[in-house]
Amino acid sequence: MVRTLWTAATGMIAQQTNVDTIANNLANVNTVGYKTETNEFKSLLYQTLQTRTTSANGDTKPVGAQVGLGVRNAAIASQFTQGAYLESESKTAFAIGGKGLFAVRGEDGETYYTRNGDFRFSIGGNGTMVLATSGGLPVLSSAGQEIRIPDTYITSKIEVDADGYLMYPDANNNMQRINNMRIGLYQFQNPSGLNKEGDSLYSQTAASGPALNEATNQNLDRSEIRQGYLEGSNVSVADEMVNLIVAQRAYELNSKAITTADTMMQEANELKR
Predict the structure, then answer these.
(1) Alpha carbons 122 and 181: distance in angstroms, whole number
(2) Three-class SS state of 29
(3) In the chain, at which end, N or C, are there fewer CB atoms within 10 A of the end residue's CB?
(4) Which residues lie below 8 Å from residue 256, measured CB to CB, with a gap of 6+?
(5) Closest CA to 75 of 41, 25, 44
(6) Gap between the Cα atoms of 95 and 4, Å rounded
(7) What is the chain's Cα-based Rg?
(8) Using an 8 Å Cβ cutoff, are 49 and 63 in contact?
(9) Dihedral of CA 80/82/88/92: which sign?
(10) For the chain, what is the total number of helices (H) and then of strands (E)?
């Protein structure tokens, strides 16, 4: 009976984490570039009650008897499927079509990656302007450098083509590349292995593998950048509500198992009276 209590308790704990994950998905349904997360479960160790043996008559029993000890959360994985394109009036709003991620430099000097292309130009000092996130983190180019342009440029006239090159009209109003500068796009062999840092940022891990630069790696499927659009989250409210109901029912079932085990233990205790 005690085994029953602990087994059901592991189920309740696992489903509580599942509900927390679903709630986080629903909370971020309007977060730009957010990727929905899903819980992955695995069973705990099994306890062997009886190994394969023979019966009293000498007949061989084909299988033993093992009982499971519950469940636990194995991982919470992000699903990097394409989100919907949301039109934006900002000239520095960029959506990625494909598997690429933008790279930004964090306050600690490390490189982080994001699908949130809600950028803007800010004063960078020394007569330059720098392309940065809404949180002020500099966006990196395909060369891994901060994207800086002279402050003599009018930012409203800057355009970005599908390959990420920054363009500016010349005296004849023909679009020309600005110092051949290009917004960097990077891919990972296993994006689900990226570490979630908050603020739609991800960091590289051993599980994700190294960042692959689309500008220099010819074996990658090229992504495209769409100016004037943002990538919405890929959270499906209908799916998450169904998952929430399933998680709640599973939680209730485990709670019922605890109640049933408690009732059986109470009846067993009363037998000696």
Answers:
(1) 17
(2) coil
(3) C
(4) none
(5) 41
(6) 50
(7) 27
(8) no
(9) positive
(10) 2, 20
| Percentages (nearest 5) of helix, strand, coil residues in the chain | 25, 35, 40
Q: Count CB-CB contacts under 10 A for residue 43.
A: 12
Structure tokens at 270: 């009363």
**Residue 164 to residues 23, 53, 63, 92, 94: CA-CA distances in angstroms?**
35, 68, 62, 12, 10
Tokens of 4: 């029953």
- What's the token pair of residue 71? 């469940």
